[in-house]
Amino acid sequence: LPGLDLYNAIRAGSLNYKHFLNIFWIYPPLVPASYTLFYLIFGTNTGMELIVNSIYLIIMLLSVYGIGKKMFNERVGLLSAFIVSSFPSVIAASRLVYAEFHLMCLTTLAIYMLLKTDYFTDRRYSIALGVSLALVALAKWEFPPMLIGPFAVILYRARTVNPHIPYKTKLNNFIFSILIGFVLSSFWYVPNFKNVIHRLFFWEIENVFNNNRTFPFNSLMGIGNLSNYLLGLINSHIGFFYFIVLTVCLIFIFLGLLTSRIIRKEKKHAMYLILLWIVLPYIAFTFVKIKGYSHVLSVLVPISLVVAAMLEKLRKPYTIFASIPTSFRA
After folding, report:
1. Which of 36, 153, 195, 196 is the most buried (most CB within 10 A)?
2. What is the pLDDT of residues 214-261, one digit of tens each?
3. The pTM is what?
4. How far is residue 304's CA from residue 242's CA, in Å, rounded to a whole number?
């Protein structure tokens, strides 16, 4: 494992930049290095991985609480944190060494920082966003589909929100965040850029194991099975009960986006952000021939927000039924 290789290199005093890049030539170093840090402090005893994963899980739960509170209210934040922590795949992944789990946690942190920038009017949180983007990039390089949608919604809304601040200033803060993320993660991405592009478009990983076997995986782009991740959502990620709840919630969201009775105008953009956070990764990874349910683990966070926001509406159920347009009523 790269984490143990890094640990052994540090203990042996043989670690240098070239050796570091040789250890982490397939994937970015943040997740294995997180384990290495705890190995150095506590030793390589069994259980260190669970401690590291627990820290990442706490980061995610605090972030999803903050997102729910920022977008809706404190009740939605608390409920969404509870819901996402009860999903079967989150419980399982938190006990395993899956980089997708850590990517989910750090992506949630990045989107919370994105909201805290207040449409890129707050320079301090724009800097914090840049740092969080670097952490996301150093966790795993398949992060862009999770972030494109939320960023697009925030940039679009930034044109009209806080009009006393010029849009150019907001764009400058956005660019500043991206630059910070690039600079902080460039120590791995620049020397490995060719490898990343090669894996991204051809998905060929050669000489992975000690016996130097070659695994010529198919090209990355391919329509594959459109229902693959949908079945994974039901059977693995959230379970049948939550899937039924999610389906009902999405129906009411669709109706709510047609009328302002259930989702006020200022909340519709929040729902657009959440829905794009779900849909774009699903579409992107549907075109990946090498499929794995863990690829879409990050969409569980926005799913928990959808369910929490709509369940919170049940406190006043008449708003749900009042949202149905007359033409849909019996």
Report:
1. 36
2. 444 444 444 556 677 777 777 777 877 888 888 887 777 766 665 555
3. 0.85
4. 9
